[in-house]
Amino acid sequence: MPNIKEKLYEKIVENRDRVSKLVKQHGNVKISDVTVAQAIGGARGVKCLVTDISYLDPEEGIRFRGYTIPETLEKLPKVPGSDMPYVEGHMYLLLTGEIPTEEEALELADIFKERQQVPQYVCDILRAMPRDTHPMTMFSVAIASMQRESEFVKAYQKGLSKYDYWDSTYEDGINLLAKLTGIGAYIYRMKYRGDVIISPDKDLDMGGNFAHMMGIPNPYDDVARLYFILHSDHESGNVSAHTGHLVASALSDMYYAISSMINGLAGPLHGLANEQVLRWIQGVMDQMGEKVPSDEEMKKFVWDTLNSGQVVPGFGHAVLRKTDPRYMSQREFCLKYLPDDPIFKYVDSLFRVVPPILEEHGHAKNPWPNVDAQSGVIQWYYGVKEYEFYTVLFGIGRALGVISNIIWDRALGYPIERPKSVTIAMLEEMVKG
Ligand SMILES: CC(C)(COP(=O)(O)OP(=O)(O)OC[C@H]1O[C@@H](n2cnc3c(N)ncnc32)[C@H](O)[C@@H]1OP(=O)(O)O)[C@@H](O)C(=O)NCCC(=O)NCCS
Predict the structure, then answer these.
(1) How far, in Å, is the centroid of ligand 1 from the Cα of 363?
(2) Distances (CA, A) of 171 to 95, 156, 157, 220, 254
(3) pTM (whole model) above 0.85
(4) pLDDT at 252 over 70
(5) Is the pLDDT of residue 292 over 90?
(6) Mean pLDDT of the chain
(7) In a domain, 137, yes or no
(8) How many CB atoms lie within 10 A of CB 361?
(9) In a domain, 341, yes or no
(10) Residue 267 has pLDDT above 90, yes or no
């Protein structure tokens, strides 16, 4: 049985040929037009990125390597005694496009275990930062600080053929991914759990080990597995994935690229929305005391938010035009494990009242909830009540997809990204007549 790197190389050779034929034989075929509204409006809907790792259909939602979320969760090998698959198996799928056997998932799990030790200097840097620094800032700095370890940089400086870029990029990606759960748990325990750090357990898979290092009993291991898999990728145009791709396109190494993608994820319109949802719900709870608001009362809170010019966090999407299937998977989890939780009741009430209000409000193209509307409530239930930490969890998951994409970008020789800009005066000239 070939190991994951050999399997990856077989696929790379196959796909290099496909891409080269497309460019040589059909390079002039038009796949997208750009309107003035799209140029000013954040390139929404402009088809100009290529990835096979995942595809987001507006009506159906995400497919990872062609598999829907339920199919992915069903087909990937499961951790014994658990409802959820190995995160390592999901990484195997994203990288190679094939569902791994249990043996193949475990082989990757072993590689991660060998490389999981977080360097002491990273801990020292985190400790040198003011303790009230946002966890996303800490996470980004910790990742950037390891740039000195880059295998790609070492190989590049010795003189590297562009056909071999992918190899050391793969090594950087796996080295970094192996440490992300440890860094996340370290930040959490240092900031919020009396600075009592828990060492990794080499017998556990990535999700199980993360729950262990966070100090939270099971089924938090399954929560971690579900989170990392659901948040892993959402095709290439979202801010975090696109930032990772863009930065890496300059041949900046994996550490620079992933630290940058984390910075993009930290915006409230993107990954930070999961923190904002809990912050918003807490605001409502403060006003309601112990009582769960009626739907009528909840409607008033939602309208107050809209009328004050703010967005309702956790609702709307740039591509999706239905309820996010990532929301639905987490909702199913909540219905199974925490149906009576008071915050779940709030989230459920928002699911009923917000979409008709956003439709009446008439601005958002998609009134339905996205992944962030549901994710915080699960964390809260299992004791992670420090909601500013939630986006770090999103970041660990998103790294799976962005790292896979960057390895493939290098393998297929995608060039430095450089769209063209125009001035407002040029646009005015173009629209005349
Ligand atoms: C996700 C999001 C950034 C997508 O933005 P987008 O692609 O520009 O969305 P739309 O095209 O539907 O936006 C059209 C208008 O509706 C508004 N809108 C979109 N979602 C909204 C929401 N949840 N609450 C209030 N207004 C919203 C936009 O701000 C925009 O307003 P404008 O015309 O005054 O500029 C947006 O829906 C949003 O801000 N949602 C809340 C934050 C969030 O949950 N982010 C996580 C996304 S996974």
Answers:
(1) 8
(2) 13, 13, 16, 29, 10
(3) yes
(4) yes
(5) no
(6) 96
(7) no
(8) 15
(9) yes
(10) yes
Element (H, E) at 132: none
Ligand 1 centroid from CA 203, angstroms:
43
Q: Is the CB of 317 under 6 A from ligand 1?
A: yes
Number of domains in the chain: 1
Average pLDDT rounded to a whole number, residues 242-267? 98
Among protein residues, the one with the nearest Cα to ligand 1's atom 39 is 269
Write the pLDDT tens digit of every residue in 11-43. Answer: 999 999 999 999 999 999 999 999 999 999 999
Pocket test of ligand 1: the residue of 353, 363, 371 to mutate, having most ligand atoms within 8 Å of its CB, is 363
Q: Is residue 241 part of a domain?
A: no
Residue located via tokens 């996010």: 324
CATH number at residue 364: 1.10.230.10
Let me know: does 236 contact 405? Beta carbons within 8 Å.
Answer: yes
Atom number of ligand 1 nearest to Cα 363:
16
Residue 321 placed within a domain: yes
Does a cis peptide bond (omega within 30 degrees of 0) precede residue 342? no
pLDDT class for 289, splitting at 50, 70, 90?
confident
CA 409: distance to chain centroid? 18
pLDDT for 1: 64
Q: Ligand 1 in contact with 324 (CB < 6 A)?
A: no
CA of 310 to the centre of ligand 1 (A): 10
Q: What is the pLDDT of residue 139?
A: 99
pLDDT exceeds cutoff 90 at 2: no
CA atoms 273, 275, 281, 287: torsion sign: negative
pLDDT digits (tens, 9 = 90+) for 221-234: 999 999 999 999 99
Best residue among 269, 307, 371, 398 to mutate for probing ligand 1's pocket (most ligand atoms within 8 Å of CB) is: 269
Q: With contact defined as beta carbons under 8 Å apart, do 243 and 263 qualify?
A: yes
Instruction: Mean pLDDT check: name the lowest of 9-13, 344-348, 412-416, 422-426.
Output: 344-348
Pairing of strands 61-64, 54-57: antiparallel
SS3 state at 423 = coil
Q: What range defines the domain where residue 328 resides?
A: 286-381
